[in-house]
Design goal:
The structure is a single chain. The protein is of the alpha+beta class. It folds into 4 domains: 1-478, 3-Layer(aba) Sandwich (Rossmann fold); 488-573, Sandwich (Immunoglobulin-like); 580-683, TM1070-like (Hypothetical Protein Tm1070, Chain: A, Sandwich), CATH 2.60.290.11; 690-797, Hypothetical Protein Tm1070, Chain: A (Sandwich). Strands 2-3-10-11-9-13-16-18-21 form a 9-stranded mixed beta sheet, sandwiched between helices. Strands 34, 35, 36, 37, 38, 39, 40 and 41 form an 8-stranded antiparallel beta sheet that branches. It has a 5-stranded mixed beta sheet with strand order 27-33-32-29-30, with no helix packed on it. Strand 36 (612-619) and strand 37 form a beta hairpin. The two termini are 51 Å apart.
């Protein structure tokens, strides 16, 4: 097994030129530097899609770390997406033509302006909004502040990742069903392909490798391999006699040199060529990249590799599935770049059979190498990188595949072998069902196959089963679930501000449910709500009697959905009283460690001149409510509000307080231990206190180390679903993690030890979070910094 470096590709405009030198020789893929051509002119100029990022957020963790070293650094600059006429269909020839013209305009504009801060542009890509170049580290923040910049990625070094597994994956059975890859092109993005090998050369007047290109600058004709790694991967995918998809054709995209190393910009250049020519020479539907870097990520790394993310998203949009090796560094807390990009299928490795004991060389997380004393089919290899970002598993050691110069490698392995195995199965599936999308392919690998748990980290993923995956996308295992029955409301008429519960019978095989809510029986302009439970609580404040209509349907993660249920209507009546609404982000009734108990006390003070009629509504996995009347100047403290003497529910969630008079709402959530209580204060928030769409706030003074941990909770106080983006930074302003939260109205979600689970931080003394409401309104976020010894919490409130 050989360790792989992470590659990057530098690109410019890409065009297919000249005919091949001889029959069977690939047609050349040639890159032309956009910036070497005159800048095109557009009378109306070019508009771009704006974003909410600050200049600091456009610099990823790796680039921030590199800035500490000083000097000149190579980078790829991702520019903002140019706007194209909405009448043009994305990924069509006319859309490409209009977009590439606009890309050329903004790339020239950016390069000219960026020269003023010392940026030296070396290439501009024709079909991706990416400019490659170099700049002094002290000028990076100035470059990130340019109005056209969306993100900046370190142009780092990558390496090649180093197979009789077809039977284990039932690839042979799918071939017997006709899945042989006919008409499907697979781009081998690697060290090139030895297209003179008997398994990979023209046979019966059919060319196996119709196109190729060298993006390393080494001058290898048509992507000819001079190292061997790419040839081995090509044989696994589509060798005439031993490949997974023997009738598929291959493109030789050489982005690694004769040492198996390259730059990330070389990869981007090669992917640019793939996209630009995707409909030529038989077309391309799959990209296979057995490439890795030393960096590793527990989740997706789109924020650190924005150029990769934009390129892969565009390829996915054009119907091209991207399969990448997870890496061979023996890491159980992260996968390598570029497999960490969310638009890729990240593939780890298992043994295909018992090959006896096996020992492997050093890697990032195994400086002394690693050993598997015993091996067996479907056992995860000790070198295979793994984390929650991993998507699938496939065989690696030990298989025979094509070798450089002719003959065969008797034991090619590593995640480098697992990746082309999956790429080959993908070509098989696409040859039987060409309309299958990249998202459907990924879902099939996530949902079918043999479940295997990695003992190192507890992550369970499926080892690819070609037949089951094909059946999944074909629909034989993705049938629509039944329609929810007995759809009902707990009441058909309720006063304004009073909650009611919608419920239905569980549907066998359903993964979740969608509810629609509208003020008309035709559901025009309906709000869509989601749930994994069989009930949902709703409430509305109205200024006049209003009828709300509801219906539900069952859904499956593969995309299938049932018909809509019968419609239920609920009338919300208006009494003429003004409603005041307050939210406490979280109240709890839970067991803690060491026989402790989490509880919440809630205080209500009537500060008005009239009696207040109050309703308290708990929003959690179950629902509960209770009404009270408070005299003028009266304060009540509801001790252990979720306990059996009051709301009588177990769990944690948000508490909504509705009143016809102004109140002061307070709360304390605390842990009851043998030493006493340790608690924190939460005040009552009004919906107007929350973030609206596009607004953001900061949670400061956060910590994640041996002494303290940080939890972050997010609440939707609005009446429609909300999506919230949370970015995590260390004390130096470097982005270390990012995640999104989707919230139904009234829903609270909490991420514990967030800097560890989402940012991979274990010894961070200083940090903060930026919380942005990207969809919806009325969003509030709170953080708790807890002492690891006592669990004593400190509340951190959001600062807009």
């Amino acid at each position: 097994m050989r360790n792989c470096k992470r590659l990057v590709v530098v690109a410019a405009a890409v065009w297919l030129l000249a005919a091949a030198a001889s029959a069977g020789t690939p047609k050349p893929l040639v890159s032309v530097d956009v910036l070497s051509q005159p800048a095109p002119a557009l009378a109306a100029g070019v508009q771009v899609v704006e974003d909410l990022k600050t200049p600091a957020e456009r610099l990823g963790p790796r680039l921030r770390a590199r800035m500490q070293e000083g000097g000149v650094v190579p980078v790829m600059v991702l520019l903002k997406e140019p706007l194209v006429a909405s009448t043009l269909t994305p990924y069509t020839a006319s859309w490409d033509e209009a977009r590439t013209l606009r890309l050329a305009v903004i790339e020239h504009e950016f390069a000219n302006r960026a020269a003023g801060v010392g940026f030296r542009a070396t290439k501009g890509l024709s079909h991706f909004p990416i400019v490659i170049g170099e700049i002094a580290t002290e000028q990076l923040e100035a470059l990130a502040a340019d109005p056209l910049v969306a993100g900046i990625q370190l142009d780092g070094t990558v390496h090649a990742s180093r197979i009789q597994g077809g039977a284990l994956m039932k690839s042979d059975q799918l071939r017997n069903q006709g899945g042989r890859g006919s008409g499907i092109g697979v781009a081998i993005v690697d060290t090139g392909i030895d297209y003179n090998h008997t398994e990979l050369k023209e046979r019966n007047n059919v060319t196996k490798v119709p196109a190729g290109g060298d993006f390393t600058g080494s001058g290898q004709p048509y992507g000819l391999d001079d190292e061997g790694h790419g040839t081995a991967c090509a044989g696994i995918v589509a060798g005439w006699d031993g490949g997974m998809a023997p009738q598929a054709h291959l493109w030789a995209i050489k982005v690694l040199d004769s040492e198996g190393s390259g730059q990330e910009s070389w990869i981007a250049d090669g992917l640019n060529a793939v996209y630009a020519n995707r409909n030529d020479y038989g077309g391309v539907r799959v990209v296979s990249m057995s490439i890795q870097s030393s960096a590793r990520w527990p989740g997706d790394c789109d924020y650190d590799s924005p150029a990769y993310a934009a390129a892969m998203q565009q390829l996915n949009g054009a119907g091209i599935t991207i399969v990448v090796a997870s890496g061979n560094h023996g890491c159980s807390d992260g996968v390598s770049t570029p497999s960490c990009v969310s638009y890729a299928i990240s593939v780890g490795a298992v043994y295909d059979a018992n090959i006896g004991g096996a020992q492997y060389g050093e890697g990032t997380c195994m400086p002394a190498g690693c050993t598997d004393a015993t091996t067996a089919a479907d056992k995860i290899t000790c070198y295979s990188n793994s984390s929650n970002r991993l998507d699938a598993l496939a065989p690696s050691h030990c298989a025979q595949t094509t070798a450089l110069g002719g003959g065969f490698d008797p034991c090619f392995g590593g995640t480098s072998a697992a990746c082309p195995y999956v790429a080959g199965v993908t070509a098989q599936i696409l040859s039987l069902r060409p309309q299958t999308t990249p998202a459907q392919i990924k879902a099939a690998y996530l949902d079918t196959g043999k479940a295997i748990t990695d003992a190192r980290n507890g992550v369970t993923r499926k080892r690819v089963d070609a037949v089951a995956a094909y059946q999944y996308v074909q629909g034989s295992t993705c049938t629509a679930p039944g329609t929810p029955t007995n759809f009902r409301s707990s009441t058909l008429t309720v006063p304004s501000g009073t909650s009611f519960t919608l419920s239905w019978n569980a549907v066998s095989g359903a993964d979740g449910y969608e509810l629609q809510e509208a003020t008309n029986s035709g559901f025009s302009g309906a709000v869509t709500l989601t749930s994994t439970a069989t009930s949902m609580m709703r409430s509305h404040v109205v200024t006049g009697n209003t009828v709300y209509y509801y219906r539900a349907r069952a859904t499956r993660t593969c995309g299938a959905q049932s018909a809509w249920s019968a419609t239920v209507s609920v009338t919300v009546t208006y009494s003429g009283a003004s409603a005041y609404v307050y939210w406490i982000p979280v109240v709890a009734n839970l067991s803690g460690s060491g026989n402790s108990q989490y509880r919440s006390d809630v205080g209500l003070l009537n500060r008005s001149s009239s009696t207040a009629n109050v309703q308290m509504i708990y929003h959690g996995s179950t629902s509960a409510s209770r009404s009270e009347a408070l005299a003028v100047g009266r304060q009540r403290i509801f001790v252990h509000i979720l306990g059996p003497s009051y709301l009588n529910v177990t769990g944690k969630g948000a508490l909504e307080v509705r009143s016809d008079r102004a109140l002061t709402v307070t709360s304390r959530t605390y842990n009851v231990t043998s030493l006493g209580t340790f608690g924190q204060y939460y005040g009552g928030y009004e919906p107007s206190d929350g973030l609206g769409q596009g607004q953001w706030g900061v949670l400061a003074q956060l910590t994640q180390n041996a002494t303290y941990r940080t939890n972050i909770g997010v609440l939707n106080m609005g009446s429609t679903a909300a999506v919230v983006n949370v970015k995590l930074f260390n004390g130096f302003g470097s982005l270390v993690g990012e995640y999104n939260v989707t919230l139904n109205p009234g829903e609270y979600k909490q991420e514990d030890r967030v800097f560890g689970t989402k940012g991979g931080q274990t010894n961070m003394a200083e940090g903060y979070a930026k919380v942005t409401c990207t969809t919806g309104a009325g969003v509030i976020a709170v953080a708790s910094v807890l002492d690891n010894g006592t669990s004593d919490p400190t509340t951190i409130e959001l600062v807009p």
